[in-house]
Amino acid sequence: MSVTPKESGSKIVFVTVGTTQFDELITQVLHPNTLEILEDEGFCTMIVQIGRGVEPPIPISRRIQISCYHFKENISFDMEAASLIISHAGAGSCLEALSVAKPLIVVVNQKLMGNHQLELAEKLHSEGHVFMCYPETLKTTIVDFRSTKLHKFPRNNPLAFSAYLEKLMGFQK
Amino acid sequence: MTCERERNGYFLKKYRLPAARAEPLGIIISRKRNKIPKPMAGDYITALLLLHNQGMIRVQKVSSSTGGHTGEMVRLLSALDFRHFSPRLYLVARTDDMSAKRVQQLESSHVSTADSTVAISRSREVHQSWISTILCNGPGTCVPPCVIALLLRTLFIKRSTIVFVESICRVTTLSLTGKLMLYILADRSIVQWPELHAKYPQTVFLGRLV
To answer: Taking every annotated instance into account, which residue ranges of this chain make up the domain Glycosyl transferase family 28 C-terminal (chain A) (predicted)?
Structure first.
């Protein structure tokens, strides 16, 4: 049953909702049509991180193998292993996915009140670093994703902050 | 991690280093959701006084229940020289186990690499130990401690520097907390997008930090 990705040499799609509850995304991702598109793309494994959401029924006896969990202390391994990441629009998840330089589809949760996540998602989308979509348009986005190339996201600079704070507090560098 | 005291349902927890150093590394103030009201000003004062008695708290982190702010803060702190900013205090909601875990991860990763007996840099002797940095990045829960810190500074009780880092989520608009911080509370407000810096020139722009 459990085949490690390396043994099968398979393409993995990783779905994450961070610490939120985003059942619409999970439902869409596990929709037979979506799974079929992913299977046609050559994906053999899907790992779904469902956060605070309710555990969905896992479709079995498909070509794509699906596993799901609520939380993990460190999801970077799953991100590293994936060749496509589908994420909610949370800044943490997006930035983590971008830092491992994987193709990223950002799905915006329209049910969030005063959705400030949208600001970042739109910015990243307009600069061509990610694909942004809504749960309903996920399927078409996965199809589009094949033909379009994403721009690499520039690395961040945490040392600038460290240096700034040191200077501000009077430490000599 | 030991539970130091329980007061009105709030827990003040102290982290201790596993081996070499015995001084407390950080304190977590937390609460049970829905069972008791939000922390009152008095709780923050208690926390700050506790810090004051301990001498030199340098970095304080305030987080709400969402993983995003914690994630950003952990990324910010990861590049920081922990020997200069020590000990550290973190404010985390009690319901937020994930954040607490990430903070613990961050702390333990630094413990293993940092030499705890290293000589303190010269410049630190120049500055009195009771100058502290309060670092916060967004959720509204970081406002009360900052108000109190400002009050204590105004009354010449405790000097502190408040540094606010606006969340990476904010590309073109400042959050309400961000505006409060920029105009009233914080000594420095850092933004992470040039668009936002152009709109609010008083802010500091250092590039993308997280």
So the answer is: 12-156
Kindly list the residues from chain A whose CB atom is less than 8 angstroms away from the CB atom of residue B133: 165, 168-169
Strand partners, A106: A87, A132
Within 8 A by CB and 6+ apart from B73, the residues are: B61, B63, B135, B137
Domain interval for residue A141: 5-168
What are the φ/ψ torsions at residue B2 (nearest 5 degrees)? -115, 145
Is residue B90 scored above 80 in pLDDT? Answer: no
The answer to whether the Cβ–Cβ distance between B172 and A169 falls below 8 Å is no
* Residue B39 pLDDT: 45
How distant is the Cα of B206 from the closest Cα of chain A, in angstroms? 6
**Domain tally, chain A:** 1
Residue pair B67/B54 in contact by the 8 Å Cβ criterion: no
B58 part of contact set with chain A, CB < 8 Å? yes
In angstroms, the CA B169 to CA B37 distance is 29
Closest residue on chain B to A121 (Cα): B169
Amino acid at B133: T
- Chain B 100-119, residues with CB within 8 Å of chain A CB atoms: 101, 105
Does residue A132 belong to any structural domain of this protein?
Answer: yes
Q: Would you call B201 an interface residue with chain A, using a CB distance cutoff of 8 Å?
A: no
**Which residue of A lies nearest to B163 if distances are taken between CA atoms?**
A165
Weakest-pLDDT range from A10-14, A41-45, B20-24, B161-165: B20-24
Evaluate whether residue A82 is within a structural domain. Answer: yes
In a domain, A22, yes or no: yes
Say if the ipTM goes beyond 0.85.
Answer: no
Each residue of B131-147: pLDDT tens digit?
A: 567 777 766 667 777 78
CATH number where A158 lies: 3.40.50.2000
B210 vs B197: CA distance, rounded Å: 16
Q: Which helix (H) or strand (E) holds A160?
A: helix A158-168
List residues of chain A with CB under 8 Å from any CB of chain B.
18-20, 71, 73, 90-92, 95-96, 116-117, 119-120, 122-123, 154, 156-162, 164-166, 168-172
Mean pLDDT across the stretch A46-73?
88
- Tell me if A173 is assigned to some domain: no
Number of A:B CB contacts under 8 A? 109
